[in-house]
Every structure is written in structure tokens, then in C-alpha cells.
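#struct-help
A.M.: can someone run this one for me? Single chain, 483 residues.
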Amino acid sequence: MKASKILVAASLCAAMAIPACGSDDDPSPDPTPGTGVINVELVRNVAEANANVALAAYNDSVTSAQALKAALETFQTDRTQANLDAAKVAWLAAREPYGQTEVYRFRLSPIDSTNYMDEDGPEGEINAWPLGEALIDYVAPIDPAGTDFTADTLDVTSHETGVNFPSENIISSTVDINADLLSNTATAEDERDVIAGYHAIEFLLWGQDLNQDGTATDGTNREESTPGNILDSGGHRPLADFLAEADGGTDAFADRRFDYLIVAVDKLIADLTAVRDGWTEGAAYRTAFLDIPDEAAARQRLTEILTGMGTLSEGELGGERMQIALASNSQEDEHSCFSDNTHRDIVLNAEGVRNSFYGDYAGYDSTLDGADNETGSAVDGYGLDEYLRAVGLGEQADALVAALDVTQTAYNGIDALARQGKPVDVQIQNASGDDAAAMRDTIVALNAQSIVIAEIATALGLGEVVDPEASACDTANPTVECP
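D.P.: on it. C-alpha cells below:
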């Protein structure tokens, strides 16, 4: 899901010599001296750390996606349950760094724009959801009386694939499976035709999650693929789906599933690489982002950084990614609904906001035990927390530290419950029940931290940084269904 509005960085566009790209005709007034003075040199330090964290996290996203491809190729060569499980583990690990990058959206950075003017970036082909799974492969029959797998969630209202849906899908058709085909994603107004990115690969590995008990793990290491652990709590696509006659199986579409997986992961790697490269030394975007010659440019950079933090917190994460699923008990609307990995999506997105505030990136967790072990790209930079204290806004810095800590405690509760055997699709079954308490607390905490982020922007004399159009959800009331 994508917010409908992104702050246009006028000074960034000017630095890149892009015509008709935003406007700064109505700049915000200067704050009172001594209570938020813009210090250009210190803002440069904040921006440098922000760019370094982005580069590190996207670089790890590329590396882990390449590891996913290697696992898929191994599975294609040797089609065993162990290799299917290894591919699933590689997918879960690949989500760990990427989830921390979502804070770089909503500001026309390389994830959302290719020319830093239009919202034409690759995000929709990398991480868009809900998936149009019925357009990709077989699904469970529509249940008109159910909460999930209804016509509203499985019908594809519009697509540009050339497939005669619903009598056939991409896998069962003869359409060529290539990158151009997968680029026909999210063309429908309801975005139910998404067929590319992480979640297309997830669906093909796990299939639909049709169980209701949510048995997940013993809470120690999610990598271990044994009965009762995380790989068994999501979908249960059988190994037989990947076994053609030459492999001792009978599935006529097994090879097409592998064709789809390899095309999808190659496209994912290419899209992630393009985004990462926008943050590398000498790249046009990074160069312009770090070009802060005066106070106006400094204000713009702070606005962009705070917009990513504020809009992700309240509208996108609290609303679109959490409250829609919680308030309506919709498994289809939880982010990683096939693998039951939504608890990690929530944790990692929220951690991305912390990364931007502190100017740090610890790395990511490739062993899936809850601790970051891939630390080769770690960044320890100059954060907004340090900046705010340096310019006389220590009270506001303390307020956001406290708000972020409340949010962290809440989302750690979601993570812990999932590791104990109750993934998000179980936690949301009763929005007012005990199992949903951590979900409710996290949504409310994200709302509260977005308010503090907006107050910091006001104290710095900046404009709006929490996009009111990012979600229609009332995140102060998490059990209320979103319009």
C-alpha cells in the first residue's frame, strides 16, 4: 500500500536542475532564536548520517536478496523439502534489512521516484501489497461468508497481463513469464493485481495461510524448520507443487513456478540495486541531498527526514499496515500474510524510524533469532537527537526518545507473542481481546510518536511532516475500522 501524497523537495529539485519540481513560494517563518535555530553545518551532519544509513540498509537489502536468489536456484536444481525450507528462511532473512528502509519513503527519494519529480519509483514493484495471488497461481475457493478469501480480496478487478482471468492464472496460462510481465503490477485502483516483489515470491513459497491455530515457534530460533516452528505457521504449499515429471512428481506447472520465482527475484534484485545506487557516492540524488548551502536547504532536508519518520509512523504503519487488518480481522490485509512474518514487518518499519532519529544502523538479523548479526554495514552517525540538543531543543528530543521507547516496548510485545506461537493473524482475531493488546498499544504509540515528530517540526519552523492523506484510519482509536 502506498500513501497518496509525497512532500516535494523543492530545493533538492533545484539542486538537480529539474524544472517545475515543487515550489518553495511560502517558506515557514524562522523559529525564535535559541529555540530551534537552524544550524546549517549540523544539518549537513544529520543529512550525511541519514544518507549513510540509507545506503547501508539498501546495500544489505541487495545482498540478502542475492542470497535469496541463490537459495531459490539451489531449490530449483534439487527439489527437496529441505531446500524449500531453506528458500523460505532466505526470504525471511531478506526482509530484515529491507523493513528498516521504509522510512525513506514519502520524500521523493530513489525508492519512490526515478526523476525526483514524479511518484514513479519502484516501491510498488518491490513491496506493494495486498497481493493479487489469484492472478498468479491457484487459491482456495472464494468464501462469500468468510472474513478472508472473499470476492473482495481474491477477485482481480483489473490487470494488464494478457491472462484470461479467472479461468486461468499466470502459472496455468502460456503467457511468457518475464520482467515486463511482472512490471504490470498495481495498475488496478484497488491494487489487488500486485504480482511482483517480495510478496509474490512469498506467496509462491508458502501459498495461502489457511490454518487458524497460529502455532509458530518455541521462541528461540525461527530458523529451525521443525513442526510447530515459524515455517509451519504460515501457508503450507506442498513440495509437490514444485515437482515436475522429471523430478518424480506430477505437477504440470512446477517448472513455471520456478520460472516465476527466478524472474521475480531477478527483478527484485535489479529494482533494489537501482534504489541503492541512488544513495551511493557521486550519485545524482545523494549529491543533491547532501548539497546544503544555506538555511533554506537545511530546512528542506530536515523536513524530508521528519516526513519519512512521521508519515511512516502514523499513516502507513499505524494505519495502513496495522489498523486496517486489526479492526476488521482481515488476514488478507496483514502485510506478510502468507508467511506469518507480519510481526517482523512491524518491528523493522518502526526500527527504521529509530534509525533516522539516532543516525544509526546496527545491521540485520540473518539467523532470525532476534539479534542483529550482520553488522558489516553498521553506521554510527550524527542523529536528530544530537542536533535537537545542540540547537536548544533538548526537551523535544527527550519527548521523542520517550515516545520511541514506548512504541518499542509495544512492538516488542507483538514480536514476542508471535515467537511464542501467536502470529499477527491470530493476534488480530479479536481486536478488543487480550491477544490484540500489543497491536492496539503499538498503533496508539505510533500515533503519539507522530504527534511528537510534528511538534519537533513546528519547533524547528518547518511545515507539515505527517501526511494526513497517508491513511483514513483513526489511529488514536485502533479498534475502529478504517473508512
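A.M.: thanks! The CA atoms of residues 157 and 190 lie 8 Å apart.
D.P.: also worth noting: Confidence is low (pLDDT under 50) at residues 1-11, 17-35, 214-228.
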